[in-house]
Amino acid sequence: MNPKPFIALDFPTWERTSDFLNLFSESLNVKVGMELYLQNGPVILEKILSKNHRIFLDLKLHDIPNTVYGAMKGLAGFDLELLNVHAAGGGVMMEKALEGLYAGTPVNHKRAQLIAVTQLTSTTEAQMQKEQLIPTSINESVLHYATLAKQAGLDGVVCSPHEASLISEHCGIDFLRVTPGIRLANDQAGDQKRVTTPHLARELGSSYIVVGRSITAAENPVLAYERIVHEWEANA
Ligand code: C5P
Q1: Strand partners, 211
Q2: Which of 129, 144, 167, 195 has its CA 20 to 30 Å from the CA of residue 20?
Q3: Which of 38, 121, 213, 225, when mutated, tests ligand 1's pocket best, judged by the most ligand atoms within 8 Å of its CB?
Q4: 43-91 pLDDT, tens digit each
């Protein structure tokens, strides 16, 4: 897969998405999340793919194993690069998600990679302990979920760059660390709590970064994207 950052297309409509994509002359790695997908349906994937962009579909599935199996089997029919589930759904749910993905991938097509969300980058350690009743450090919780995902056969996890090296140490360098919570030095963190710059994310061992508002809310999104790519690649 092309190692460029994934741009989070957190827009409500195809019109806004298309206006944004038309600013760029190159083929991009993009992330489609629940805002865009749930308001526009699967046709949004076809539209983006027809413009030659590569898609990470970030629906963070979390349901009983049989339901997740069926959802993944259906989504496997699209030409996607990456899909995800919540590790908190459990080992069996993750195994069934992967089975669904294999079952739905058309013959002679490459299976999309499947990763698991560990702890959201908008969650602090204090929140996790108080609200989820997990009495460990956030690192331990993330590593636990990553190990569970690895055992279920998944290709990697979504985590913060701060946890990336711990995960590669325990799960291997090929186990993906896809990291949101990325900001340029002077940008607002917004609701994200565990943020880093693209430069630091690379240094800390991210495999891919996911960037939304630092690009989509910038005065000049193309320039912001180029700065992020430059910081991310300068440290490769
Ligand atoms: O705008 P911002 O760069 O904060 O966007 C980050 C994107 O990554 C959002 O689309 C969000 O849903 C997604 N994401 C995240 N934390 C996770 C998984 C996905 O922020 N653990």
Answers
A1: 7
A2: 195
A3: 121
A4: 999 999 999 999 999 999 999 999 999 999 999 999 999 999 999 999 9
- Cα-to-centroid distance, 179 and ligand 1 (Å): 8
Per residue in 222-233, pLDDT tens? 999 999 999 999
CA 140 to chain centre: 20
Instruction: Report the nearest atom of ligand 1 relative to the CA of 33.
Output: 10
Is-contact 42 17, C-beta < 8 A? no
Q: For the chain, which domains are there?
A: 6-233 (3.20.20.70)
116-145 as b/e: b if 16+ CB within 10 A = bbbbbbebebeebeeeeebeeebbebbbeb
Q: According to DSSP H, which parts of the chain are helical?
A: 14-21, 34-40, 43-50, 65-75, 91-104, 125-131, 138-151, 161-171, 198-204, 213-216, 221-234
What distance lies between CA 24 and its chain's CA centroid? Answer: 21
Residues of the chain with pLDDT under 50: none
- pTM here? 0.95
- 60 part of the active site: yes
Catalytic position from the list 47, 51, 60, 193: 60
pLDDT at residue number 158: 97
Ligand 1 atom at shortest distance from the alpha carbon of 214: 3
